[in-house]
Amino acid sequence: MKLIVANWKCNPSTLSEAKSLFNEVKKRIEEIYSKKNLNSEIVICPPFIYLSELQSSTYRFYLGAQDCFWEEKGAFTGEISPLMLRKLGCHYVILGHSERRRYLKETNQMIAKKIVAALKFRLRPILCIGETLEERKQEKTAYILKTQLRESLELVISYKLSVSNLVIAYEPVWAIGTGNNCSVDEAMTSLMFIKRQLLNLYPKKNPNKIKILYGGSVNSKNAKEYINVGFDGLLIGGASLKSREFIKIIHFIQS
Ligand code: 13P
User: Fold this and answer.
1) How far is the CA of 172 from the centre of ligand 1 (A)?
2) Of 1, 40, 109, 177, which one's alpha carbon is 20 to 30 angstroms from that of 254?
3) What is the pLDDT of residue 214?
4) For position 38, what pLDDT does the model report?
5) 236 lines ligand 1 (CB under 6 A)
6) pLDDT reported for residue 206
């Protein structure tokens, strides 16, 4: 089962646009599903304020959020809790996206707490990791991936939580929104490295259950290549805002 996640980021600007994009995708997924067995799970992650308006009861078509706080409730101005998201019908939550690390200074330690909170309320966390252009130039990719994994999963490991609901998204920061997607060979090297790290972190569990996605300038032309080299799915930004392009990607993954 492949996992295709749409990260709408801070788009679109109005609820009516959000509804029409969501409904178009939903309709097409229902059509695909009525013809053949949909072998992918599709997740739409809109801005928080649209979540309650975009309910889905369609099979294998889920809602996700783009972040959550680590506490359940209380005096935390501006935050949204995993419990609230769960009650709204969310199944997934993106955590540690590079844009939050960059603009909001999120650290691995903060992300570690969010992952535990998400799991507690049965949200599937999608942990984003990836190197910046500068780190790649300095050949620090392996070190960055290793550190982000180890520190972000530290609490999950120490609390001995199940890893079966965990998803990792490898998103090289330099490939995000640039049209400059990571070559399949390079992405595969990182994929193998991530798998080895997960085995080191979870020697007694079966980390093969953890899905690993690729993200960064995915479009309908390159999407299938990442699946062919072993990624379990995709995390898609820009291309998920164009319903036809997004549906094309789903079609290609099916074929
Ligand atoms: P793009 O697909 O626009 O490069 O964005 C990727 C991303 O950041 C998804 O989380």
Assistant:
1) 10
2) 177
3) 98
4) 76
5) yes
6) 72
Task: Please say whether the beta carbons of 201 and 149 come within 8 A.
Answer: yes
Residue 196 tokens read as 């080895």
Residue holding tokens 């995709």?
234
Q: Is the pTM of this model over 0.85?
A: yes
CATH 3.20.20.70 fits 2-254, yes or no: yes
Per-residue pLDDT at 56: 75
- CB of residue 152 inside a 6 A radius of ligand 1: no
- Structure confidence at residue 49 (pLDDT): 97
Does the Cβ of 4 fall within 6 Å of ligand 1? no
95 C-alpha vs ligand 1 centroid, how far in Å? 14
At residue 202, the pLDDT reads: 83
